[in-house]
């Protein structure tokens, strides 16, 4: 089945530095790749997504890149702030019997120290 | 507009007991899904639905049943609880799986 591998599992950076989280997927038919942020004790929330017809997408300090040939996509956070500290999940779409579902990576715990 | 709601927030069960986790959304979303979250394991898909009357299994369906009789509700049933089902359960809904998924607040389940 579809596997989504996410690295690193933990990431510590200084405030103002950049953070990069990488994911790989196995299903060549995957065409939707969202990223979710989960703060401690809260529910996951979408922060950015990218579709297979686009190579890069930016939203202020956050950007996502996609390499369909290599089957990997990455989240880039620039000028990190303490409020960026959270668990980040990547996901990839997968076709199932009844429709398309999302398969999530295991998450990256980002800690931003001031 | 309440979004996605889940009840209960927290539940303790004994091994072998059954229970139903409730999930409801008021956004008229066709797609709904159940995930479990365990430390270091990410969000794993249990079951999902693409509309009333249509459900399918996800990655970890064993021990769980679902049904979708209305667009608004998508309950998750634990048939005979086991300690391995101790987890945080999230329900989510969306217009489709290639659109934003809105998660509920979660249900923390402890099976003794």
Description:
- The complex is a heterodimer of chains A (114) and B (112).
- Chain A is mainly β and 114 residues long.
- Chain A is built from no helices and 11 strands.
- Chain A has strands at residues 4-7, 10-14, 19-25, 32-38, 45-51, 56-59, 62-67, 72-77, 86-95, 100-104, 108-113.
- In chain A, the strands form 2 sheets. In chain A, strands 2, 4, 5, 9, 10 and 11 form a 6-stranded mixed β-sheet that branches. In chain A, strands 1-3-8-7-6 form a 5-stranded antiparallel β-sheet, with no helix packed on it.
- In chain A, strand 6 and strand 7 form a beta hairpin.
- Chain A is globular, with a radius of gyration of 14 Å.
- The mean pLDDT of chain A is 93.
- In chain B, 0% of the residues lie in helices and 52% in strands.
- The radius of gyration of chain B is 13 Å and the shape is globular.
- The model of chain B has no long low-confidence stretch (mean pLDDT 95).
- In chain B, a hairpin with a 2-residue loop joins strand 5 and strand 6 (54-57).
- In chain B, the strands form 2 sheets. In chain B, strands 2, 4, 5, 6, 9, 10 and 11 form a 7-stranded mixed β-sheet that branches.
- Chain B is built from no helices and 11 strands.
- With 112 residues, chain B is mostly beta strands.
- Chain B starts with a strand and ends with a strand.
- At the A-B interface, strand 4, strand 5, strand 9 and strand 10 of A face strand 4, strand 5 and strand 6 of B.
What labels would you give this structure?
A: mainly beta; 6-stranded mixed β-sheet; globular; B: 112 residues; mainly beta; 0% helix; 52% strand
């Amino acid at each position: 089945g579809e596997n989504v591998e996410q690295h690193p599992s933990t990431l510590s950076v200084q405030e103002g530095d950049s953070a990069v989280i990488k994911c790989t997927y196995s299903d060549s038919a995957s065409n939707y790749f969202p990223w979710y942020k989960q703060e401690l004790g809260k529910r996951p929330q979408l922060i950015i997504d990218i579709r297979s017809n686009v190579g890069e997408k930016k939203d202020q300090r956050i950007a996502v890149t996609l390499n369909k040939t290599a089957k990997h996509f990455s989240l880039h956070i620039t000028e990190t702030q303490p409020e960026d500290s959270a668990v980040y999940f990547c996901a990839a779409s997968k076709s199932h019997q009844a429709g398309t579902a999302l398969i999530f990576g295991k998450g990256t715990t980002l800690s931003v120290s001031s | 507009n309440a979004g996605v709601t889940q009840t209960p927030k927290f539940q303790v069960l004994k091994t072998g007991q059954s229970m139903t986790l409730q999930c409801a959304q008021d956004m008229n979303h066709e797609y709904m899904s159940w995930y479990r979250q365990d430390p270091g394991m990410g969000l794993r898909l249990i079951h999902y639905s693409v509309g009333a009357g249509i459900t399918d299994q996800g990655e970890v369906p064993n021990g769980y049943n679902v049904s979708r009789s209305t667009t608004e509700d998508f309950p998750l049933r634990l048939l005979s609880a086991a300690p391995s089902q101790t987890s945080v359960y999230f329900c989510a809904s969306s217009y489709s799986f290639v659109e934003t998924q809105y998660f509920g607040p979660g249900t923390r389940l402890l099976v003794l």
